[in-house]
Specification:
This protein is an alpha/beta fold. Helices cover about 40% and strands about 15% of the residues. The chain is built from 15 helices and 13 strands. The strands form 4 sheets. The chain has a 7-stranded parallel beta sheet, with helices on both faces. The chain has a two-stranded parallel ribbon with strand order 7-10. α1 (about 15-25) crosses α8 (about 220-230) and α3 (about 80-95) packs parallel to α5. The radius of gyration is 20 Å and the shape is globular.
Length: about 350
């Protein structure tokens, strides 16, 4: 069977790790983005803006994928605009590919906002699910751009006859620059600044997150599930949660992360201390550190997404996911969460993104 992948959002945290895995597994792999990643050996870049149907059709004129992996989205000021723009992007993409009739499977990456609500109503009273969250949990009675993206995939699948899968990771841990949701690198940058300035590595989030059970998703584990679902008939036309497979408490992991950077760990002290405020004046400090240590990226906002880390760590409930569904179907990949963070930190240091 020919295996031709189109990774949409190949410059992002999920898409770049997926592209590397596909290429390693022998897939012909195209990477679509507004600014394609050209650092991945073997990736064939496709430059296009998903909001522009005409330019998208031109960019994909010579590309006939068998499998499409949608790993991108665009943040807007309101949820109504999130819905309009992100559904348009999926619709334009699948419409451009429709005449080719080459697509056998489409995988869409969303996340736990499926259960917790969108940005402007995230983890608020009245929308909090019972945890661990399970795939059969009904959609919330609230507008959510994830639902709009799913509906576009369902409609195109009914029209063109391909199978689909939906993937819902928790916080994705992996290397990416310029990514809007990047907890692992955000914490690495914050810890590096703490080390440089002598500040303590202070927990920024809620008591519930500090003391409760949690899990996260290594970008490489997500890549494995995406490929598994795209090539396993029993997994077709289903939604799957995806995490590393272990659980932890931040009260334990926070001290582990601090130890890696040799900084003082300060836990929950009765108040939330948002990272966005904590790091608001660190832009100049990071520029100075970049010059001092020869770092490749001197723009703090290109590495750290404090606002999104605050969103996750400030939640008023513990959040973890149930993995039974894919486990029963044979997906058994596992990753130690501490190793996810430590391996990311090593990579960031090797690539001169942190000192």
């Amino acid at each position: 069977m020919s295996k031709i992948a189109l990774v949409v959002g190949a410059s992002g945290i999920t898409g770049s790790n997926l592209a590397e895995k596909l290429i390693a597994d022998g897939w012909t792999t195209f990477g679509l983005a507004r600014n394609p990643n050209i650092e991945i050996d073997g990736l064939q870049p496709v430059q296009a803006d998903l909001r522009n149907a005409e330019s998208l059709e031109k960019a994909l004129a010579e590309v006939s994928p068998t499998h499409v992996f949608i790993t991108t989205w665009m943040r807007n000021e309101t949820e109504a605009e999130n819905i309009r723009v992100n559904s348009l992007m999926v619709r334009n993409l699948l419409s451009a590919l429709s005449p080719k009739q080459s697509v056998k499977h489409v995988a869409l990456v969303t996340g736990l906002k499926h259960y917790l609500g969108p940005f402007d109503a995230y983890a608020k009273a009245g929308t909090l699910p019972e945890t661990p969250v399970r795939e059969e949990h009904p959609r919330l009675e609230i507008e959510n751009f994830y639902y709009a993206q799913e509906d576009e995939v369902y409609a195109a699948a009914a029209r063109d006859g391909f199978s689909w899968s939906i993937h819902r990771p928790h916080s994705v841990i992996g290397k990416a620059v310029g990514n809007a949701m990047n907890m692992g690198t955000t914490l690495a940058v914050y810890a590096s600044i703490c080390k440089e300035t002598g500040r303590p590595f202070r927990w920024p989030g809620s008591e519930a997150q500090w003391n409760g059970l949690s899990d996260v998703t290594d970008a490489r584990i997500l890549a494995e599930q995406l490929i598994w679902a795209a090539t396993t008939p029993e997994a077709a036309n289903q939604a799957f949660n995806i995490t590393n497979g272990d659980v932890f408490r931040w009260s334990w992991l926070w001290k582990q992360l601090a130890a890696w950077f040799d900084v003082e760990a300060i836990g929950y002290d009765g108040e939330i201390h948002p990272l966005e405020a904590e790091m608001a004046r660190d832009g100049v400090t990071w520029q100075e550190m970049a010059q001092k240590y020869g770092l490749k990226e001197d723009e703090l906002e290109r590495l750290a997404s404090a606002w999104h880390t605050d969103l996750d760590l400030g939640r008023p409930i513990e959040v973890m996911t149930d993995m039974s569904k894919s486990r029963k179907l044979g997906f058994t990949a596992y990753k130690s969460t501490r190793d996810s963070f430590y391996e990311l930190f090593e990579t960031l240091r090797q690539e001169q993104l942190i000192p």
